[in-house]
Amino acid sequence: MTLHLYDTFSKSKRLFEPIDPANVRMYVCGPTVYDYPHVGNARPVIVFDILFRILQHIYGEKKVTYVRNITDVDDKIIATAKENNEEVRDLTERTISYFNDDSNYVGTLKPTVEPKATDHISEMIEIIEILIQKELAYESEGNVLFSTRKFNDYGKLSGKNLEDLIAGARVETESFKKDPSDFVLWKPSKEGEPQWDSPWGKGRPGWHIECSAMSNKYLGNNFDIHGGGQDLIFPHHENEIAQSQCAHGEVFSNYWVHNGFVTVEGDKMAKSEGNFVTVNQLKDRYQGEVIRLTMMLTHYRQPLNWTEENLKESKKILDKWYNFISDFETKNPKSENVSNEVLNSLYDDINTPQAIADLHKIFKNCKNNNQDSIDLFLNSAQFIGLMNNNPSDWVNWGKESSIDEKQLEILIKKRDEARAEGKYEDADKIRDEIENMGIILEDKDGKTSWRLR
Ligand SMILES: [Zn+2]
Fold first, then answer.
1. 451: CA distance to ligand 1 center in Å?
2. Which residues of the chain have pLDDT under 50?
3. What is the pTM of this model?
4. Domain interval for residue 320
């Protein structure tokens, strides 16, 4: 089996061949931390978690380095901190903890490294100095700008033409730019804003240089996969390529993987659109795996239409699976086999909808209580981050437990005795009594188990 990934740069599905199979390297643009992550922000977190799992499965758990940065200095962060009347650092630290909680909730593995931009200012300054030295960047009124015209490949990732970009640029081009398409590497900070010393005075980095510096530090000049949301292709990733390739003289990333938008009634879910649902808002109503499965039912490159019906549908699937598994003693499978069908689907450009269809098929085979099938089902589901809850916790999730369990056990025993004595009418009466408590009884292999309705 071989892994194929759709590469945005070449606009084709390509066989994945790592530079070094003993150290497969992936960089994904992480969150800008100023508010609760919304569902659109959660999509790349889940998509690249699955890719991380696939790479670990192929090359070995310890042989994949997954870097996902944290942008903790940015215009939006500064503006929000000001609005909240709090220190920038208090806001970013708090938001990072929201992000971590939400990532756990949707069942993602921790990336190998989660570098913060503010811990890497000197690395950014270093790259900017190289670019100035090579005369690819220039200083102007305390800003440092990258000269897009000096990089011949500018626009190749996004398929944009430099002349069109310039023609389309807003008329009120900032006076400090030589060319409207030039972008900021460093800018002066206003009074009270976060600032660092630099050869160009006190200031702060532009957003794009952050990712060039952090990917370089942890993954080197040339690495395997760069990922992120489709909305980052231009200008963010285009600018990352320009900076990194010009500074280091090597191809930046060998594969570019981008996930599609989350949409609400056809529009992109975005903070600025006001049409967003935060992950945190879903926690009272759904288990994290419901969110995860909902994301996986659409291929990562397609737009994902976010609806309550889709969530309910995912919950129904997982309820069915957990209800069945809860009849078995353990949620931990005894073997470690992941289904080849599921793997095949995932290796085909992370085709999660197909992998879920495969899981449904495997689940059907579990119906004859064959332990091997159940193991295969659980292994395969757990591989993509599903079926990791305790089945009885899942089944009883969100239900207020006002059940007197001792009383319940006594009633169940009485009913068993009545049945053993052939007093079926009495047994049925007890059953009705129990069911009125909101309990469902299940008789199986001479044993009676119960769960909340
Ligand atoms: Zn980035």
1. 47
2. 171
3. 0.88
4. 306-395
